[in-house]
Amino acid sequence: MSVPAPVPHLRRSLRRFDIMAMGVAAVVSFDVIGQIAAGGGQAITWIAVLAVSFLLPYALLFAETGAAFPQEGGPYVWVDVAFGRLPAALTTMFYWVTNPVWLGGSLAFLAARAWNGFVFPLGSGTTADYVFKLVFIWAAILTAVVSLRRGKWITTAGAAAKVLALAFFTATAVAYGIRHGFRGLTEAHFTPTAAGFLALVPVLLFAYVGFEAPNAAGDEMLDAQHDVPVAIGVSGAIAAACYLLPVAAILSAAPPGQVTGVGGFMDAAELVFGIYGSWRGPLLTGAAVLFAVALLTQGSAWMIVADRMQAMAAADGGFFTRALGAFHPRLGTPVRMNLLSGVTATAFMVAAMHLAHGDASDVFGVVLAVAITTLLLSYLTVIPALLALRLWHGEVPRPYRVPFGTPGFTVAALVVYAWILLGSWVALFPGTLEAAVGIPYAFRAVWGVSRSTFETFTLGTVGLLLAVAGAGYVTQRMRAQPGDDQRQSGPAG
């Protein structure tokens, strides 16, 4: 077994708490809380169901693999060792590009909407709107450029701000309900339905994946083999609570049918903060600023890890030129890949601004669907790679093991893969499963755009990514010289 050569200039600075905080900063997504709450009372039911049937086996798989294979690059290395460089390069492309798409799409749009509504008027499609989104994107990129031993404190602060904001909002919603009654919950319908399930499954899977992301900085962890399993377990439990409680709080306060994906959290905050009287305005402004900062650090946390993955792919000869995989000798960060992410995020932001004419919620929904699609598609290769590593490289030391050994690992992998396969299909072709089982589905009413526009944007993005990833691999193969492959042999642990 061979793995990519170690990266020079890296310093080990990530402790167990840092790994956990990075996981929380990356995975707990403000932008999907409103989207989940828009599913109504049954959203709470499905959050709990997927926490047990998906998040738990998912966390077990990545806890074992992340501890056994702690190299820089994380999922890129796992797929490379299991299936080879080309599948690894294609997988990493989808995993990586999700984040500039997400940063320049839903995160920037959501932050701008909160800023426009509660801090300073920006308008829609104005110069101020563009400037805000550009500053937002490049501030997130800058935090990924700085050295990890400093940048980790930015993501840690973002994780803390996120958890505190959600806790404060939840407590306020409870106080609001005690004073005015929990009308939203009494009128909500918690009974699960097939239509509600198919609408929620992609966004819930998107909300729960990503705890393996800190493994992309595996060579910068002090004790990855012992810290990764604990960090994944703790951050997974925090994430489940950070989705379940705020969604329940939003539904308890907001009138049924009035929760939207783009405005859910801040709209509900505007309502429940009324209990603070004259302090309502300043508190909403502060909450909006905190909201935007938390979104920014969420984007930067993903940039830190995903750019390292793509840089490892480039350094290993899988993406255009090895120069893109260079890590800065002083900062220890893949600066060129960081800058490429910034350019990609900017381009996608401009494209999204022209997708729908004047309706921010439509833009938000479609752009989020693209991010969900690209990320879930990457796991269609990553999950089989985990199982292959378990079956073919059992000699690698595994400080943590999934209960019941290889049979337990296999069952967990099959369950997770089935969920990912379902979520990928629904995200890429919404409404098709509903039609197959006779459930009415008004596409334009749901998405605000025609199916042709939606599929052009989503399938076009997938096709473009495959073309770029394939071109990057072929280009590097054609330019390769004898001795270019620098890899090391031996156990990954």
TrEMBL record:
Record bears the keyword Cell membrane: yes
Keywords, comma-separated and alphabetical: Cell membrane, Membrane, Transmembrane, Transmembrane helix, Transport
InterPro entries assigned: AA/rel_permease1, APC_superfamily
Organism this protein belongs to: Streptomyces yunnanensis
Gene3D superfamilies: Amino acid/polyamine transporter I (1.20.1740.10)
Location in the cell: Cell membrane
Topological type in the membrane: Multi-pass membrane protein
Keyword check for Transmembrane helix: yes
Protein name: APC family permease
Source taxonomy: Bacteria, Bacillati, Actinomycetota, Actinomycetes, Kitasatosporales
